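Field reference: sequence -> structure
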Amino acid sequence: MLSASFFWVGSEAPVDGVRPTYYYLYNDAIPLDHRLQVVKEWLQLPEDRRPHVILFYLSQVDHAEHLSGPVSRQTEAAVHLVDDCVGKMVQIVDSLQLPVNYVFVSDHGMEQVDTLHGIYPPAALDTVKFKVTFGETMIHLYAKEKSDIPAEYEALKKEAGAQDAPGYDVYLASDVPERWHYSSRDDRYGRIGDIVLVARAPRVFAVRGRRINPGAHGFDNALPEMGATFYAWGPAFRQLTIPGFENVNVYPLIAHILGLTVSQPIDGSFRVLSEILKK
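Structure field:
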């Protein structure tokens, strides 16, 4: 099958050595109207060259929420901008009279951050014996010597426990909550730290002297604010409202619509969303 990708996350990266048939290197400066024109041109290609699936990413809402917060006027303006862009896309596609299905998703929600009470790196954090990566919602510690892990873990736990409101939790990679699918058991590529510090919403890890952005994601996915968006419409879909579900189930849905067989083990299941399709 042929695929096209306009800035879908990681679109220019080879996956198992394979890239999309048509793709662009990520460049947020390309105007939205030009992007829509490219989509139209893809759909106007001869049938043997026309993509069967097109991935299209819009970053405006994510950027506005990070920089200004999810309840800001800047975010509201970004939502209207994206809504307008999707409307234009539908008009363009309708004019071509092709049986196109749309799946509109977001990859995460967004939390309004407490910008006044940043979580600064604990004193027990040993950057000599551990390689440390910092993020707003997580800090990973990678031990240079595995024998140093127990003592560092106990020191970090003790420091967190001594605070009235530490704002974060400390985990060994083997003890991260199972429902996150983020423990050493799930870590096929060895990316998760030996020790992981996880911020408690709405606080985030911070660096002194640097601005704390008022919007962040990556918190516990059980929080309603971390919920994502899902809309789908087109000739394949029924008109109904469904309860929330895990994003991993979108992949087998799209594979089914395209008539593809999923040949490797995956986390999602087509059964979860099968009811939204016309019989």
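Note: The two ends are 24 Å apart (CA to CA).
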